DNA sequence: AGGCTAGGTTTCCGATAGGAACCAGCAGGT
DNA sequence: ACCTGCTGGTTCCTATCGGAAACCTAGCCT
């Protein structure tokens, strides 16, 4: 009835579930998108993304690095220069992410509209 | 150089950014996936997803409802029966989510492999 | 009456997110 | 020589989140 078979992603303790939890945080998708055009410096990402703190950027990049999606190049220069780029594995995530960006572009207004029509306690009335 | 134009999603204060933050939490994507086959009851989702608590399920569904992606049907029966289903807007998210599931299916092992090859302090060495 | 069911909420506590401030290391201005 | 600044990163502290378990409602069954 439910139509989900065994090994179905998301619904079990499988690699797919882990992969989803990998990207399901506030900044991962945005950072991957920021890296999608080629190597970018730490400071450039800060400017580009807007709203992310240095700490969260570093933390997100470190996790992506540990998961094999991003590669870090630290040049022994002064002032220090560090560039990040997608690995081939990380690059395979760009397509799904682009689908999300297109969805967002097309439906972002509809979501805002729904929020507007449904003023739930998103802002708590404390 | 960076190649991102004005109004580029993720990189600015636009509806797209909001939409991404909408789905960028631990359970939203999984719950949407669980709803992708048609109306499902609260309890079914608990069984189906595995690992989610009732609290987080309700919370996630409420947010999705407030954002116009999910519709709630509460039947005045005893014992109570509540069904959730995607709205047409919510259904438009299924395609991007399926791309993620396919990515995960194809690359989940590669991610696990990278983690294995890179035993970073995921478990802190305290 | 007491227990069962199913959805939901509350309470409590540990984990995490996030901003601000601080650190390292060297070049350049004064 | 010293102070400042640039760049990347880390530490401190707090607000929020996530999760387990208990409790609640309300009608049915035994």
Automatic annotation (TrEMBL), chains A, B:
Fetch the Pfam families from UniProt: HxlR
InterPro entries, A to Z:
HTH_HxlR (IPR002577), WH-like_DNA-bd_sf (IPR036388), WH_DNA-bd_sf (IPR036390)
Per UniProt, the keywords (alphabetical) are:
DNA-binding, Transcription, Transcription regulation
- Domain HTH hxlR-type spans what residues? 14-112
Query: Record keywords: Transcription regulation included?
Result: yes
Q: Does the keyword Coiled coil apply?
A: no
Q: What is this protein called?
A: Helix-turn-helix domain-containing protein
């Amino acid at each position: 009835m439910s139509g989900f078979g065994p090994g179905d992603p998301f619904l079990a303790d499988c690699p797919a579930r882990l992969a989803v939890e990998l990207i399901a945080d506030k900044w991962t998708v945005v950072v991957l998108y920021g890296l999608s055009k080629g190597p970018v410096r730490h400071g450039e990402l800060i400017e580009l993304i807007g709203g992310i703190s240095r700490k969260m950027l570093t933390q997100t990049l470190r996790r992506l690095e540990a998961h094999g999606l991003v590669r870090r190049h630290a040049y022994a220069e002064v002032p220090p220069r560090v560039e990040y780029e997608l690995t081939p594995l990380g690059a395979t995530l760009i397509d799904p992410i682009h689908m999300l960006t297109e969805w967002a572009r097309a439906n972002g207004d509809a979501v805002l509209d729904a929020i507007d029509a449904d003023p739930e306690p998103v802002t708590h009335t404390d």
